[in-house]
Amino acid sequence: MRPAPGQVLHFSEDPTITRFVPHVAATAQQPEAYVWAVDELRAPDYWFPRECPRAMAWVTETSSLVDRERILGPGGGERMHAVEYGWLEAMRRVRLFAYRLPADLFRPFGAPVPHAMVAAEPVTPLGPPEPVGDLFGLHDAAGIQLRVLSNLWQLWDSVVDSTLGFSGIRLRNACRRP
């Protein structure tokens, strides 16, 4: 599930949205109200139930071979996502939808590397939302390693201390640190 050229995506468990209105997200670190979306590169970050904590890492131009082998492992490919066992059933059962939005209304957000796209005005989807389908199948088809761990924190600490690119989403919902 990726955006077509000229589009960005918004993932939601709500299939009834007809208009996206800028808002300040509950976890926002900035005071501005936005409509949030992602481009093709960041779309896989959202192939999860909304509240599911996940740790993600990927190879960048500056990633060392040592870190790639240490964290992604042999045969691990270019990208890895990790969740906790307690979220497996939610990943199997969630009904996730993708809304296609016009990219020209959005600008990159995040520094030094953008991690989202934002619009400061209301946005109408380009059509009805599309069911995302099997989240495990999406990961497999994209060649993204999906790990399931009892606790994300040891992996997360290794990832943020590496030369890999990384992102952590909803980590506040992860199990407590051991």
Describe the structure.
The chain is α+β, with helices and mostly antiparallel strands. The protein has one domain (7-173). The chain is 17% helix and 25% strand. It has helices spanning 65-72, 88-93, 135-142, 153-160, and strands spanning 7-12, 35-37, 54-58, 79-84, 97-102, 107-109, 116-119, 130-131, 145-149, 165-169. The strands form three sheets. Strands 9-4-3-10 form a four-stranded mixed beta sheet, with helices on both faces. Strands 1-5-8 form a three-stranded antiparallel beta sheet, with no helix packed on it. The longest helix has 8 residues, at 65-72.
Main features:
alpha+beta, 178 residues, DUF6886, globular
What is the residue-averaged pLDDT? 95
Structural class: alpha+beta
Provide a count of the helices.
4
Largest sheet: 4 strands, mixed
Q: What proportion of the residues is helical, as a percent range?
A: 10-25%
Distance, first to last CA: 35 Å
In angstroms, what is the radius of gyration? 16 Å
SSE topology string: EEEHEHEEEEHEHE
Tell me the overall shape. Answer: globular
| Low-confidence runs | none
Count the domains: 1
Pfam families: DUF6886 (PF21820)
InterPro entries: DUF6886
